[in-house]
Amino acid sequence: MVGWIxxxxxxxxxxxxxxxxxxxxxxxxxxxxxxxxxxKLVPARVCSNCGEEYVxxxxxxxxxxxxxxxxxxxxxxxxxxxxxxx
Length: 86
Ligand SMILES: [Zn+2]
What we know:
The chain is α/β, with parallel strands linked by helices. It has a single domain (5-81), classed as Roll (Ubiquitin-like (UB roll)). The chain is built from 2 helices and 5 strands. Strands 1, 2, 3, 4 and 5 form a 5-stranded mixed sheet that branches. The chain binds zinc ion.
């Protein structure tokens, strides 16, 4: 599961309150109408303790925008790598 953060560069995990976060990658799944949009290799900060993933708000906004566009085409499943799509 991915937590959407509202501040840049969160350092302490807000879920377990113990772990430090470090740079890593997350797989994000967005469901919108009939579309399931899966994006791999999304830059994220990952908690070293519980594994919670934090995606920055501007990246999340970008993913939701892509999902809206793909949804309009009537696709039901779209899987892509964030780094290649960018
Ligand atoms: Zn944690």
